[in-house]
Amino acid sequence: MTPALPLWVDLITAALVVLGALTSLVGAFGLVRLPTFFQRVHAPTLCTTVGAWSFSLATALQISFAHGQLFVHALLIGVFLSLTAPVTTVFLMRAAVFRARLAGEDMPPTVTGPRTPPST
Question: Is 96 within a domain?
Fold first, then answer.
């Protein structure tokens, strides 16, 4: 059985869990309600990253105080989510832009400009 934790630890943990739940809910709401793929992809990426960090910090705080030593496993989950979510979003966005260009939709030009063979 774990010892009783101080009230302030429980309050901070509860606040972090509520913050994580609310930001995840906002991300899910944005995924459902925004009209285009390019708009829908931003809300879940940003909000769920913040939500995951909030849950990770709450877990690390609660377990660290309960066992008397720093619990970094939950923080590593937050780090990996923070690294992988933006990379996945970039790949999804690039694939969507590529498909839209193939379909003939009006898309902004590439950053590097049109590819032309070098003049000799």
Answer: yes
